[in-house]
Amino acid sequence: EASKQEREATMRAFRGGKLEILLATDIAARGIDIDDLTHVIHLELPDTVDQYIHRSGRTGRMGKEGTVVS
User: Fold this and answer.
1) Which ranges carry the Helicase C-terminal domain (predicted)?
2) Which residue ranges of the chain lie beneath pLDDT 70?
3) Which of 36, 59, 66, 68 has the most CB within a 10 Å radius?
4) Contact 69, 40 (CB under 8 A)
């Protein structure tokens, strides 16, 4: 498990364009708000429709296009 400092550094690197891919668990994904996120890839389908919508809703915000792969 990553420390809080490691998670924060990873998010800064991703937002700053130094990382192209961010892999996150459902717990980590809660509260993540990243502008212009283009893709969400579900490695495993969530247990509920609400969880699926929550995960998938991380892309395609503010009228922009986004891609979800399940």
Assistant:
1) 1-70
2) none
3) 59
4) yes
Report the pLDDT value the prediction gives residue 40, as an integer from 0 to 100.
92
What does the pLDDT read at residue 61? 83
Cα–Cα nearest to 26, from 53, 5, 4: 53
How far is CA 21 from each of CA 13, 16, 41, 47, 48, rounded to the nearest angstrom? Answer: 10, 12, 11, 24, 25
pLDDT tens for 28-46 read: 777 778 888 899 999 999 9
Residues 61, 41: Cα–Cα separation, whole Å: 16
Can you give the residue ranges of every domain in the chain? Answer: 21-69
Contact assessment for residue 67 and residue 42, using Cβ atoms and an 8 Å cutoff: no
